[in-house]
Write a structure and sequence with these properties.
With about 450 residues, the protein is of the alpha+beta class. The chain has three domains: about 160 residues, FAD/NAD(P)-binding domain (3-Layer(bba) Sandwich); about 140 residues, Protoporphyrinogen oxidase, mitochondrial, domain 2 (Polyamine Oxidase, Chain A, domain 2, Alpha-Beta Complex), CATH 3.90.660; about 90 residues, no CATH class. The chain has 17 helices and 19 strands. The strands form five sheets. Strands 1, 2, 10, 11, 12, 13 and 19 form a seven-stranded mixed beta sheet that branches. A five-stranded antiparallel beta sheet has the order 15-16-17-14-18. The chain is globular and about 70 Å long. The two termini are about 20 Å apart. The structure holds flavin-adenine dinucleotide. Flavin-adenine dinucleotide binds next to helix 1, strand 11, helix 10, strand 14 and strand 18.
Length: about 450
């Protein structure tokens, strides 16, 4: 037995969901168990002087969100993304200015692709407007009701079905954005894919804030509220409840340990939750089994330039037909409002879904070389300024809704007595879902104590 006392709650998992639950319960007798050697989960960044490298989540929800509340409470500095969100580099041409409606006329693509891009783009625009209406919060509404409405939006088909048969360039262009979810266009629900364009085209509506100094600062700030009540290297093996208590077992430095608590908040990814929580109702276990994650291979580059760079004005660049499908100018947030351009910067690229799978047999050095080569073909100057490259692979990147996903929601939200689930897989807003489900679990626990 780890401790003879009965804890108020054990929190399993030190990602955003677990740390936000921990932050909200920091005045209670809680213990947070994290299997890896760091806090943050899929938020991973490392400082390099005034810059930082980033490998995981990087844009966060804005004013009015649960994220916003916790950023404020923890004193974590965040800033609106300044750079352009919709830019594209295709077939040798990089477009980082002008309206997206001008892209079909400016991209070097065949005539039939141009026509298709216009017509498909119009259809998508209309669908994005519909999505915006569906996703709009209704004052006083239970967030779970809104979430279900979003999940149900165009979930009867995949995004590829929505696109229909289109020329390859068009397919790849839209695919670069949709695979940001780590799912292929023929896997993700159409409505969910459309939600991505809603985020990219309407910055006020979506994930539009960066954390100064790197994303990892945010979970670290919440974890600081728990101090030494966090155990790293503590891999939980089982969470079992009886009528009065929850028993949590874990392995730490090769030793089996156990704690007893009134409640447990399980904030691990769906497949881990399925494995470690005992006695799950069949429908909840089945729903967890059906949550799908896709992979990413991420490259983070530290740059050492002393003059302005061509990527300075943009934040996100879609890069179809490259070894990575997106590039993010992580250093962009430092540029907002600066009088003189500070030296250095940071870029992040990633291959997602099948493109990431295709790199499984490559070493990190080979991946880094491919990424750098492609980056240099888009921006030759990158060759001269990259000072450091670090590759990171995520086997379970993000949980993407597939057609019919809304049908799993009641089973995922089913009350489980003294065990409370949290994590981004419970909804569609990534970091915001992770944080809001962690906060909601903490609220339930506090109410029951
Ligand atoms: C490349 C990439 C880019 C992304 N970009 C964005 C973005 O820009 N904006 C956005 O909103 N979202 C983004 N996301 C998604 C975002 O990072 C996640 O939604 C969010 O971080 C998930 O938080 P979580 O707490 O639910 O899960 P996790 O962060 O996965 O936390 C789960 C934790 O549980 C721990 N754990 C696992 N097993 C055990 C065990 N047995 N015992 C104890 N602990 C265990 C894990 O180590 C981990 O720390 C991105 C993700 C990736 C991979």
């Amino acid at each position: 037995m780890e401790t003879s006392e009965v804890l108020d709650a054990v929190i399993v998992g030190g990602g955003l969901a677990g740390t936000s639950a921990g932050w909200d319960l920091r005045d209670r007798n809680v213990l947070l168990l994290e299997a890896s050697d760091r806090i943050g989960g899929r938020l991973k960044s490392e400082a390099r002087g005034d810059n930082w490298l980033n490998w995981g989540g990087h844009v966060f929800s804005g004013p009015g969100s649960v994220t916003d509340r916790l950023l404020t409470e923890t004193g974590t500095a965040a800033k609106q993304v300044g750079g352009r969100l919709a830019s594209v580099s295709l077939n040798g041409k990089t477009i980082t200015s002008g309206g997206i409606e001008t892209f079909p006329f400016r991209l070097p693509i065949p005539f039939n692709a141009r026509v298709s891009l216009i017509t498909t783009g119009l259809r998508l625009r209309y669908a994005v407007i519909q999505y915006g209406r569906v996703a709009k919060p209704i004052p006083g509404e239970d967030p779970a009701v809104r979430q279900l409405r979003i999940l149900k939006f165009m979930e009867d088909r995949t995004f590829a079905d929505f696109l229909g048969k289109v020329p390859e360039d068009v397919d790849l262009l839209f695919g670069a954005t949709v695979t940001r979810s780590s799912g292929e266009t023929n896997e993700v629900a159409a409505g969910y894919g459309i939600g991505y364009f809603h985020q990219v085209w309407d910055r006020a509506a979506g994930l539009s804030r960066n954390i100064l100094g790197g994303s990892a600062r945010f979970p670290a700030a919440m974890a600081a509220g728990l101090g030494d009540r966090i155990r790293l290297g503590a891999a939980v093996t089982s969470v079992e409840q009886d009528r009065d208590r929850v028993r949590v077992r874990w392995t730490e430095n090769g030793t089996e340990r156990e704690a007893v608590a009134k409640h447990a908040i399980v904030a691990t990814q769906a497949h881990v939750t399925r494995r470690i929580v005992g006695g799950l109702p069949d429908e909840t276990a089945g729903a967890l089994d059906q949550i799908k994650y896709g992979p990413y291979v991420v490259g983070a580059f530290l740059t050492g330039e002393t003059t302005p760079m061509p990527w300075d004005p943009l934040y996100a660049l879609a890069t179809p037909r490259r070894s990575f499908s997106m590039m993010f100018n992580i250093g962009n947030v430092r540029r907002t409002g600066e009088q003189h351009r500070a030296p250095g910067g940071s870029l992040m690229v990633y291959a997602a879904a099948n493109l990431a799978r295709s790199m499984a047999s490559l070493s990190d050095e080979e991946v880094a070389a491919r990424f750098r080569q492609d980056l240099a073909e888009i921006y030759p100057v990158s060759r001269d300024v990259i000072k450091e490259t670090v590759i990171h692979r995520w086997a379970h990147g993000t949980a993407y809704p597939r057609p019919g996903r809304s049908r799993l929601q009641p089973a995922l939200e089913k009350p489980l007595g003294r065990i409370h689930l949290a994590g981004d897989y419970l909804g569609t807003w990534y970091t915001e879902t992770a944080i809001s489900t962690g906060a909601a679990a903490a609220k339930r626990v506090r109410g029951a104590l």
